[in-house]
Design a protein that fits this description.
This protein has 436 residues and is an alpha+beta fold. The chain contains 16 helices and nine strands. The chain has four domains: 43 residues, no CATH class; 199 residues, 3-hydroxy-3-methylglutaryl-coenzyme A Reductase, Chain A, domain 2, CATH 3.90.770; 116 residues, 2-Layer Sandwich (Alpha-Beta Plaits); 42 residues, no CATH class. Strands 3, 4, 5, 6, 7, 8 and 9 form a seven-stranded antiparallel β-sheet that branches. It has a two-stranded antiparallel ribbon with strand order 1-2. α4 packs across α13 and α14 runs antiparallel to α15. The structure holds (R)-mevalonate. (R)-mevalonate binds next to α9 and α13.
């Protein structure tokens, strides 16, 4: 492949054609077919093109619904965008299971987000502290033209502090800005505040009359919000008498199930290898709602895993509490999401998702996402400690393989029958299709 300059300036068709000229005929043919995935509606396509850069086409993902989520007394049908089979099915089964047992309870613990001005400064720390205290209100007031609207909505800057990080890195300090961003995710809001405040910080240091000359030289390194949001936290739980858990495959009793389930979750607390997979199951549910509602799944993922290792060990995000009579399954997770601004209103399907959820506030959406994560985790661990994961998984996997091999409807029916008690693999399905 050749290098190119000016790629971003080319039209979409020119980009596609250039890329095709760089590839072997088969790949070039595929690239030339990228316009098959464009929207017919040109205005809509333009909107999609402008979400990102160097856009050639759209990449479709399935948009599904997990119904029957009873959360704090309200029922939701939750939109989920995910390519992995079984995830929506597991969430739906989890929702139905708990619908019959009182549903999900959820509460938002806090909704604060943080941004940091990272800077270097050398001198007598007491001088910097005095400087900060003297100008703290000036720093906050200097950004009132940015925070004014948010304040009208009940948000804005809720705290500003000076953080001494010099024990970790020579001369390194932070201005830590804590914000309430209401229903917005708030990334632009926080970053704008930080960049403006950094200018004021530098200027005020330069003109500070009690700083020694070298103390006036405050070096701002960078300004950026933190995607670690341990103070944007939601808790969700399900609870029922153990005997109400019902009976399970292979005549497993409710008590036996509860104990096996609790041990499975404990394993994810003590073994990192299992914890990552356990939490991946939770994020299967959460990410699918994050995507459906136009939120930032990279931020949610990065934060969730940092949170899972907050004690220095990476652990399960969910917990089981078993007493003699009751089974309680819960999750506490930071979820910094928005329901206004950004993609949430620009992407037509994100808007539809939010409408399906009855246009929730950001805290309501945090509760819904936590419930879906918990349902997903419940479904996965329930399968793992009872029938095993492959039984349910393989049914859908079989369909995927049959689709890949262009099986006819009659072949699909015959294959479902044939493989109901057999191990499914790509080769075994292909061999089956050769003779059916
Ligand atoms: C698969 O995407 C997710 C699971 O592996 C989660 C788990 O093991 O708990 C089934």
């Amino acid at each position: 492949m050749k290098t190119i300059s000016g790629f971003s300036k080319m039209s979409k068709n020119q980009k596609i054609e250039w890329l095709a000229t760089q590839l072997d005929p088969e790949a070039a043919g595929l690239v030339m077919g990228l316009n098959d995935f464009w929207h017919q509606d040109e205005e809509l396509q333009k909107k999609f093109d402008e979400f990102s850069e160097n856009t050639l086409t759209n990449f479709d993902l399935p948009f599904g619904i997990a119904p029957n989520f009873l959360i704090n007394g309200s029922v939701y049908s939750v939109p989920m965008v995910i390519e992995e089979s079984s995830v929506v099915a597991a969430a739906s089964l989890g929702a139905k299971f708990w619908l019959e047992r009182g549903g999900f309870e959820a509460r938002v613990i806090s909704t604060k987000k943080v941004g940091q001005v990272h800077f270097l400064w050398s001198g007598d720390k007491k001088n910097l502290e005095a400087f900060f205290e003297l100008h703290k209100n000036d720093f906050i007031n200097s950004v009132s033209f940015i925070t004014g609207n948010m304040e009208k909505r009940g948000g804005g800057i809720v705290d500003l502090s000076l953080v001494d990080m010099t024990d970790k890195l020579k001369n390194y300090y932070q201005l830590k800005v804590t914000c309430e961003t209401k229903d917005a995710m708030g990334a632009n809001f926080i970053n704008s505040i930080l960049e403006e405040m950094a200018q004021v910080l530098k200027r005020k240091a330069q003109s500070c009359d009690f700083f020694e000359s070298q103390e006036k030289d405050l070096q701002v390194i960078m300004c950026i919000l933190s995607n670690y949001t341990p103070d944007c936290l939601v808790e969700c739980w399900v609870e029922c008498p153990i005997e109400d858990l019902g009976t399970f495959a292979n005549e497993m009793s409710a008590m036996e199930f509860a104990k096996r389930f609790a041990i499975a979750v404990k394993i994810a607390e003590v073994d990192r290898s299992r914890a990552v997979t356990h939490n991946k199951g939770i994020m299967n549910g959460i990410d699918a709602v994050v995507l459906a509602t136009g939120n930032d799944f990279r931020a949610i993922e990065a934060c969730a895993h940092a949170w899972a290792s907050r004690d220095g060990e990476y652990k399960s995000l969910s917990t089981v509490t078993l007493t003699e009579e009751t089974f309680k399954f819960s999750i506490i997770i930071p979820l910094a999401v928005g329901t206004v601004g950004g993609l949430t209103s620009l992407h037509p399907l994100a808007r539809t998702s939010l409408a399906i959820l009855n246009n929730p506030s950001a805290p309501e959406l945090m509760q819904i996402m936590a419930a879906v994560g918990l349902a997903q985790n419940f479904g996965a661990v329930k399968s793992l400690v009872t029938t095993g994961i492959q039984k349910g998984h393989m049914k859908l996997h079989l369909l995927n393989i049959l689709n890949q091999l262009n099986a006819t409807e009659a072949q699909v029916d015959a294959a479902k029958d044939y493989f109901s008690d057999k191990v499914i693999s790509y080769t075994s399905v292909r061999n089956f299709l050769k003779v059916h």
